[in-house]
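Would you be willing to look carefully at the protein I have copied below?

:::
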Amino acid sequence: MREILDLLSDPLLWAVGLLVVAGGAALRRARALGLLLLCGGLLLGALGSGPGARALLSPLESRFPALLSSPVQEVSWIVVLTGGEGWAEGRPITSDLSVSSSARLLEAVRVWRMLGERAKILFVGGVGQPGRRAEAPLVAQAAMAIGVPPEAVDWEAASRNTRENALAIRERLGAARFILVTSAFHMPRAVAACRALGLDPIPAPCGHRAPGTLTPYDFVPASEYLWDSSLAVREYLALVLYKLQGWI
């Protein structure tokens, strides 16, 4: 019963249904308009489904495997690319992080413990959107709030995008090898941007969003899958832009 209620309460399901019904009704009077509505509804439904999101995300997220054991070469730095913030007065610091930033922080702490708590964690990321706060200091503060000692934490808060993140890493760490933590869908562009500058990161992707297995419920349109698809489409566009700019 809970699953049915979850499906029926999602506005995307109603939007897709209305578009398909409107398209079917319009086919009788205005064939072109009907086809447009029908195709729009079906496309929206496909992008908002589990299979659709997985088809877009999997090529990005499967590019690099998870870092499940310590690398052979000893590293002194774990670099975390921040992924958004939502600061508001009166909230705990853990609520000031976006879902992506929270997942990246959690993975960074896991890797830090896996390395025997000897490495330092560098959080990289400034103001993502005009009017917002710099992200790296907030994520660093959250790291310390959950038990990472201050002497193991550092941050850089001037870079605003993946290209600038890579430049900031090179300025801070030089040629030193490091573990790079970011969302799995973002890792291909992040690694390529670092390598284009002569850096040699060890990928530690996290926050995988593509469904590992599909159930019948995943074929029903849901807003969370539409958001996942939009993240993937944006990332593909960013890869094209970075390639055109010569940044990867």
The first strand starts at residue 77 and ends at 81. The chain has two domains: 2-61+220-243, 77-206.
